Amino acid sequence: MNPLILRGVRPYGEGDPTDVLIRDGVIAGIGSIEDTGADTDTVDGRGAILLPGFVDLHTHLREPGREDTETIASGSAAAALGGYTAVFAMANTDPVADNAVIVEHVARRGREVGLVDVHPVGAVTVGLKGEKLAELGTMAKAGVRVFSDDGHCVHDPLIMRRALEYSKALDVVVAQHAEEPRLTTGAQAHEGERAARLGLQGWPAAAEEAVVARDCLLAKQVNARLHVCHVSTAGTADVLAWAKARGTDVSAEVTPHHLLLTDDRLETYDPVNKVNPPLRTARDVEELRRALADGVIDCVATDHAPHAVQDKDCEWSAARPGMLGLQTALSIVIRTMVEPGLLTWRGVARVMSERPAEIAGLPDHGRPVAVGEPANLTLVDPDSRWTVRGADFASIAANTPFEGMELPGRVVATLLRGRVTATSGRIPA
Amino acid sequence: MKHLLSTEGIDPAAATAILDTAAGLKQSLEGREVRKLPTLRGRTVITMFYENSTRTRVSFEIAGKWMSADVVNVSSSGSSVGKGESLRDTALTLAAAGADCVIVRHPASGAAHRLATWLKHTGTSVVNAGDGMHEHPTQALLDAATLRERLGGLDGRRVAIVGDVLHSRVARSNVHLLTALGAEVTLVAPPTLLPTGVENWPVTVSHELDAELPSQDAVMLLRVQAERMYGGPAGAGGNGHFFPSAREYSIAYGLNENRLNLLPGHAVVLHPGPMLRGMEIASTVADSPRAAITDQVRNGVHVRMAVLYHLLAHEEETA
After folding, report:
1. How many other C-beta atoms lie within 10 A of the C-beta of residue A135?
2. How high does pLDDT run on average in chain B?
3. Which of A327, A342, B86, B256 has its C-alpha lying 20 to 30 A from A144's C-alpha?
């Protein structure tokens, strides 16, 4: 691989534009770089912001099982185009990733595609049924770093306790989809005035908050580490702040859509806006942004969830929950966090890259932009504006609640170990 | 008017126009041997019912036939729906087959709105005949017609809506329509059967039926909708744990003869049906002259004739 020079880039958006030399997958120099010869590749940065490559703790790549909506190849392309260098592929595939065979298959397909480091998430319980622990140790040996029944809550407190406790020996983290199922049977939308008027069965905030509180207590009880998926309510942010203040080893993520959209989207009954946990109120959005800025919520994760058109262009209650996220996440973080002054570009690096890499224990992602560090990098043009067209996404599924929105910020280039995996909206040949 | 999807935000003048048309139709048909008007000759009306229904489906069918429309009934059993066809495909199929109007009942809230979106470019009108827990606008219109008839008007009249408001599309449509027409609505139910945020609705909320009855001009009982109560074993009362037992519900919120006597002499009793006799309404009350339940059904036909007229025959004037 030829040496690569990023010309005129601004690490973390700070200081004057400078050059970055990348050789053998590592940052070899930062400063004014002379041409190293004819065999050097160059990216003209034009003052773009250089950040550590993004890490998504929460992606649904749908393979195996629903390759009509996304594959590891199409999802990897979407990730690279979105500025990601590592993604965690959730376990709710068909068959479920609750054993070493499936997780090894997912990891191998990810390596074959080679656009992004694909880390399989293992199921906490067999078949995501919440009844019996999956073989966490065997899957950890196969390389699994994060376990989750995402899509379902590990609702049995004893099983959750054991999962937290057992995972301590494996140096892995359990990520909980917090949803007390007894409180959300038949739930269709955020339990509030709007859903009540529209006749949509409510998903109460307390169903999330109660499980997060319980799991924080359990994690503290057994001195284990807990990660909370897709925090959606102001109350959960309060619970997390309380738990962290008393020394609980808990981390949490928020999705871009929960930072931007509210339940006023229900009015059309268009299921592109259906997601689990549901879109909440404007106050929740405001509090989630604040919690992310303050570090109460550690990171942004997409919950990228592709669905076929027939599973979305239907009546609300028949639709599947979930939305695409990999190619819009950065722009929404800019819109909701950077533009209002809640995060600097250092902050973006923290919530999109450094913290998720730390939470999952990835040694070569989320590293400083510095000489000697692995060249997993994302180059961002913050001033560019673009209009969302789901049909233009690399994902096979094309439906998105952001359709037609004009958003700030584009990924100029994504580098995985020094190799350009996406540039100017295209995957290099 | 292109569609009738809800009564939320309905223009009181438009609602009154429908009610006036219905009253006129009723008058002109009364006592006639041949109850048939040529108004919708050559128009095709299709009912799509994805939930069980007696009165609403029959009422729409009769309304269409008395207006000389060609009425076709599609139900979820005995159609391609049973083969797994999507609502969207079924709707597009019926529109392509020549439906001027589709009348839809569906368990999903918002189904009629979705249909109107899918049929946007076809010219087919959509009438919501009940979508999940959302709305049932023609029921509210026929209730308003009945109350107007019995009470001489709606402005300033007091109407109590009693029972399972949470799961009731009838309650939602009536709250919007009756308040738009100037009535004062009181919702009476246990807190478990009231919607979130009801305190911000333009209504009074009460948990004490006996306290409300003496000041009401009408009382509307709602069926307890066990089929929409999630979270528990089946069976009246126990289902979803919304209230302890059918017996306790009936004691607190059932309209029995003693309670009937608390109402002013002129007050009317309504029920959208189907009734659970002995639960929310005592048989003697349901069958008493104070009850307008068969009037509601009768007016339902005229109101639905009026709705079809305003959608299909009157469009150039109200578009």
Report:
1. 15
2. 93
3. A327
The residue written with tokens 């209230």 in the block is B243
Cα of B40 to nearest chain A Cα, Å: 30
A35 among known catalytic residues? no
Give the pLDDT band (50/70/90) at residue B30: confident
DSSP codes of every residue in A350-409: IIIIIHHHHHHT-TTSS--SSTTSB--EEEEEEEEEEE--GGGSSSS----TTTT-EEEE
The pLDDT of residue B230 is above 80: no
From the CB of residue B8, how many other CB atoms can be counted at a distance below 10 Å? 16
The CATH code of the domain that includes A202 is 3.20.20.140
Residue A25 domain flag? no
Count structural domains, chain A.
1
Q: Helix, strand, coil % (nearest 5) of chain A?
A: 35, 25, 40
CATH number at residue B35: 3.40.50.1370
Asked if residue B225 and residue B161 are part of one domain, the reply reads yes
| B188 and B219 housed in the same domain | yes
Cβ-in-10-Å burial (0-12, 13-18, 19+) of A241 comes to: middle
Inter-chain contact B114–A269, Cβ cutoff 8 Å? yes
When divided into structural domains, chain B yields a total of: 2
pLDDT at B231: 65
Contact with chain B for residue A341, Cβ under 8 A: no
Q: Name the residue range of residue A162's domain.
A: 50-360
β-strand partners of A41? A4
Examine residue B58 and state whether it is found in any structural domain, yes or no.
yes
Collect all residues of chain B within an 8 Å Cβ-Cβ radius of residue A188: 109
Q: Is the pLDDT of residue B109 over 60?
A: yes
Same-domain pairing of B116 and B190: no
The answer as to whether B50 is a domain residue is yes
pTM over 0.80: yes
Neighbours of A193 (CB within 10 A): 17
Query: Rounded mean pLDDT of chain A?
Result: 97
**ipTM tops 0.90:** yes
Nearest to B172 by CA among A191, A194, A269, A317: A194
Q: Do B125 and B184 fall within a single domain?
A: no
Q: Is A12 on the interface with B (CB under 8 A)?
A: no
For residue B198, being part of any structural domain is answered with: yes
| Beta-carbon contacts of residue A16 (< 8 Å; ≥ 6 apart) | A10
| B72, B190: one domain | no
Annotated binding-site residues of B read 55-56, 83, 105, 136, 139, 169, 223, 273-274
Q: Are residues B41 and B146 in the same domain?
A: no
**Domain boundaries, position B248:** 137-296
Confidence of residue B315 (pLDDT cuts 50, 70, 90): low
Tell me, what DSSP letter sits at residue A43?
E
Does a structural domain hold residue A258?
A: yes
Say if A252 falls within a structural domain.
Answer: yes
Assess contact for A68 and A304: CB atoms under 8 A: no
* Residue A381 covered by a domain: no
Residue of A303, A381, A383, A392 marked catalytic: A303
Query: With bands split at pLDDT 50, 70 and 90, how would you rate the model's confidence at A311?
Result: very high
The burial class, CB within 10 Å (0-12 / 13-18 / 19+), for B242 is buried
| Residues B292 and B302 occupy one common structural domain | no
Inter-chain residue contact B196 with A201, CB threshold 8 Å? no
CB pair distance less than 8 Å for B109 and A317? yes
Q: Tell which A residues from 396 to 415 touch B, by Cβ distance under 8 Å.
A: none
Q: Would you say A76 and A405 are in contact if contact means Cβ atoms under 8 Å apart?
A: no
Of the candidates B113, B198, B231, the beta carbon closest to that of A182 is on B231
In a domain, B7, yes or no: no
Name the minimum distance, in Å, from the CA of A183 to any CA of chain B.
Answer: 8
User: Would you call A372 an interface residue with chain B, using a CB distance cutoff of 8 Å?
Assistant: no
Same domain, B112 and B173: no
Which residue numbers of B belong to the known binding site for carbamoyl phosphate?
55-56, 105, 136, 139, 273-274
The label of the residue with tokens 């709710």 reads A92
